What does this fold into?
Amino acid sequence: MHAMTFNNSCSSPVLPADAASLTAAIEGSVLLPGEAGYDDERAVWNLNHELKPAVIVVPKSSADVQAAVTFAARQQRPVLVKNTGHQMVGKAQGAVMIATNRMNDITIDTACRTARVGAGVLWSEVIAKAAKVGLAPLNGTNPTVGVAGYTLGGGLSPTLGRSHGYAADHVRSLDVVTADAKRRHVDAESEPDLFWALRGGKGNFAVVTALEFNLFPVSRLYAGGIYFPGERMAEVLRAWAAWHPGTPETMTTSIAVMRMPSLLEVPEPLRGKFLVSVRVAYNGTTADGERMVEPLRAVAPAVLDTVRDMPYSEVASIHNEPTDPLPYYERSIMLREFPTQAQDKLIELVGPDAETALVLAELRALGGGWDREPAVPNAVVTRGLPYSLLAVAAGPLSQEEQLKRSVAELLEGMRPWQADRRYVNNLAPDEAADAAAIYGPGCYERLASIKKAYDPTNMFRLNHNVVPAA
It folds into this structure.
C-alpha cells in the first residue's frame, strides 16, 4: 500500500572526518559515541529506554538544524528530534539525533496573548513567564515536559483543556526545517496541508525549531487532588463517574488509582500507600469550586486534600508527578463510554483485591472543548471520545515482562469499551508499528499523502510512523 524509499540499513558509525565537516558547518555541538557530553545528551526521561544515535547535533539555531538535516540526507540516515525525551520510539541506532535543549528562547506578547518559544523550551518555563503577566498556556500535567513534542501530539491540558480543547488547536504558526533542509514558516495561509499535519501528526513531517501559540487570561485556579484510601475505590469511582458529567466545561477532572512506592521523594502521607485520587482544576471562583467539589469530599474521609485556590504558577501540584527521570512502562487507550459494567471491571482490575504491578491507572474525563473542531482543523483524531485511560508500571528493565503484563492486563480488560482511535502522546515506544490504527483510515491517508510531499524518503521515521504514500 505504501512505498518505503528510505535506506533502512544505515547503522554504520559516522566517520570522524564526516563529523568534523559537520562541526565546521554549525555553531552548536556535534558529539560522537564515547565523546564527552554524548551520554548526557542522549539520556531520556524513561530510564528503561536507551538511545544510541550515530551522532548527536546540539543546535543553537535553525541554520544548525538545516546543516544537520543536510548531513543526514547525504548519509541516508534517519533523524530523531529530542528535547526531554518523555516519549521516544526506537533506539535511534545509526541516526542523526537533534537535541533541541539550547533553542530555548521565550517571547510573551501580552497584547496578543501569545507565546513564541524555541523547540527546547519546557512547560515550566512558559508557565512561569506567562504567569508574571496574568496569562496561562494549555500545559500538560508534568512541568518538565517539552512544549513542542507535547503540542505536536495534541496536548491534553489538565487545567484548561476542557474549556479550550487541545494545545494543538491553539497553535498560530510553526517554524520548521523539512527533509529537503528548507526553513519554512508554517501557518494556515502559507502551508495549509503541512500546518494541518504537524498539529497532531507528532514528529513525522519536519524538525520544529519554534512555535507560536495562544495564551489565556487565567491567573488562578481552584485546583488540586483529594486522596482517599484505596479500599474506598468503588464508592469514590462511582461518585466521580456520576458527578463529572454535570460539571461545567471550566471544570477539568481525572481519577487515578495509585500504588505509591515507599520512596523518600513521595510525600509522607502518601508514601507506600494504596490510594484513589480525584484531581480537579476549576477556572472559576473558590466559592463555586468548593460547592461543586463538596459531593466528592463527602464520599469518604480523605488521606490528603490539596484542593485550594492557587496561583496558576503552582499547577504542577495538581498531579504532583515526578520531576526526575525514572524507569517505567506505560500505555494508554481511549474509551468510547464508561458504563456501570466498565466501572465494575476497572475495580476488579486495579481495585483493593487486584494483583497488579501498576503504580498508576488514570482515567481522564474529556468532552467539552476537546470535542470541538478548532477554527483551523488539524490532525488530532480523538475528538468525541469521552475518556482516556492510562496505565503506568514502574520498575527496572529486569522486571520488563511483569511491567508490560500488568499494563496489558488493564488495557485488555477494558477492551470492550475501547475506542478505535488512539492518543499518540500516551503510546509506548514499542507501539510504533501501526500509525494507521492510531489515526484511523481517512486521517492516515491524508497524513501519508502530505508525508510524501514533504518527506518522501521517510527521514523522520523514528516515531509512530506515517509512511509516505505510494
About this structure: The mean pLDDT is 94. The longest strand covers residues 220-229. The CA atoms of residues 178 and 206 lie 4 Å apart. The two ends are 6 Å apart (CA to CA).
